[in-house]
Specification:
Blueprint (H helix, E strand, L loop, with lengths): L7 E5 L6 H5 L1 H10 L9 H12 L9 E5 L7
Parallel strand pairs: 1-2
Pfam families: adh_short_C2
Organism: Mycobacterium colombiense
InterPro entries: NAD(P)-bd_dom_sf (IPR036291), SDR_fam (IPR002347)
Length: 76
């Protein structure tokens, strides 16, 4: 029986793209971005790069962690 030794989870913050762009466009994006300490929304590419890092060998000793990719939004 093979047991899973590594497990990570990525929790994305409020981001650009998808339905959010269809519903509100630039106005909603700027208003939501203003509430984030980074002053903008997370991009799909930033989330993808985080997932790629966690899936790669450089994150070999990271396990059992939920990494929030939200630009510090949780600090507010």
């Amino acid at each position: 029986m093979h047991l899973l030794r590594r497990q990570q989870r990525v929790r994305r913050g409020i981001g650009d793209g998808g339905r959010r762009d269809e519903i509100g466009g630039d106005l909603v994006r700027s208003q939501l971005g203003a509430t984030n300490p980074m002053g903008r929304l997370v991009s799909p590419e930033e989330v993808a790069k985080t997932v790629a890092f966690l899936a790669g060998v450089d994150s070999g000793f990271i396990t059992g962690h939920c990494l929030e990719v939200n630009g510090g939004l949780a600090m507010n």
